[in-house]
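Posting here for the record, re: magnesium ion.
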Amino acid sequence: MLKGIGQPAYSGVAIGRAYVYRKQQCDLPASCGDAEQEQQKFDAAKETAREQLQELFDKTKEEIGEEQAMIIDVQVMMLDDLDYLENVADLIQGGASAAQAAHESGECFSAAFAAMDDEYMQARAVDVKDVSTRIVNILCGGQTGMMLEQPSILVAEDLTPSETVQLPKDKILAFVTQQGSFNSHTAILARIMNIPSLVQTKIDLDADIDGKLMVVDGFEGICYVDPDEETLAAMRKKQDEAAEQRNQLEQYRGKPSITKKGQKIDLCANIGSPEDVESALAGDAEGIGLLRSEFLYLGRETAPTEEELFDAYRTVIEGMQGRRVVIRTLDIGADKQVDYFGLEAEENPALGYRGIRICLEHDEIFRPHMRAIYRAAAYGEVCVMFPMITSLWEVREIKKFCAAVREELAAEGIPYGEVELGIMVETPAAAVMSRELAKEVDFFSVGTNDLTQYTLAIDRQNAKLDRFYDAHHPAVLALMDMIAKSAREAGIWCGICGELGADTTLTEEFIKMGYTELSVAPGRILEIRKIICESEVEPQ
Ligand code: PEP
Ligand code: MG
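Prediction output follows.
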């Protein structure tokens, strides 16, 4: 039996087969010395890539639609691009291995496409890079995409947000990663999916674990490969006990979340995609308190169109059957990057070009985004909130922008709905300015993940700093108190959508501060409702 110790990012026990996900190997093998052999290797890998892409094309066409599938078709065409193939052949003749030649050609052609004036050609930069990476992966034994056939425990060095959005979610029983942190977006995704997750796990991916029976104990932060009988029995017992506890909470399903003093709290769910509506409903969410729009942009080759966004929002709104949906506008940047916006790499991305800062400067991104939200709002109760606000002028500019979008839709005769406009309070500046900001908006939602990061000057992604990343820090709690007071004074509602909102040791404290909405991972709702229903506290 092999044992790995990690940090629990979400509780629960999972038992299943291990699936080890490897990214592209970084060390590209050198040439064997025979150019002809290297060329043959390249040609064979190219054909395998073609077969894989064909399969992906058929699947995408069937599941997502023709338009998305065409992107894959472009990649298939690149496999026959004479300039590209000539470049590869020249490099191989010059002494490069098949993998080196594919990698270098990918980089060089992608840079050339990116430098072109034509927008369509610029977008091809990603395609040529992607197709080259696929060939390199085939040559080096790395993987492109998940090839999960049965429900499995996913074991990986780390997963980027882009990788996580492409996961076949119905086939994942648990996450075990060597890297990652409690506050990373991958851990957040595990919470939405309601499956155990370990980060910072000391486990050797080269040990023979792929396909072996594995147990993840998300309570203790331990995983076992090939567990002995005794461990397996103990873990099965723990799994049953957890199920029993969940059963006990079932009595709170369908009940309103009201304290004994009559204070109503809206208990909502955090989600990242239309698929997650199912989890939100299964968790008995009273609405969506945070729909992270950027997940609709990740793991793709091009930005979603207004139509695609509209469809995604409408699916969520209709799926929530009359419950309120709070859409957070695109918060790309920091750890959530997309290639197709062509943004420059930054020294300090968390303090850089992210969230509303990008939207306010890129009409071509913000306009279709807001149009899609307003159009979808015709189908239910929608609130929209903006991330990373620091100043009053930003809010005023956003309000003007929204008014213009409404006018534009009206002039075009396109139906749209009214939405409440709110902001995420997740920077110390917004917290300190909350009195003034509260006069400008309809609601606040506190992003405690970033509020903690920026208040304490601690990178939320850096697991080394987990000991110092203390969301209970008095400075954070004092700001939260200040934010709630400002909201109450201005007569607007105020919620919490960061991870701290699910911290049951603080639920009563939040009610006392005056928060009336908590948005949490769907699997936590009943547990928090129990606390609210049993509570005697009231806003002070
Ligand atoms: C937050 O910062 O608390 C938040 C909810 O937003 P995100 O985690 O997506 O940055
Ligand atoms: Mg945030």
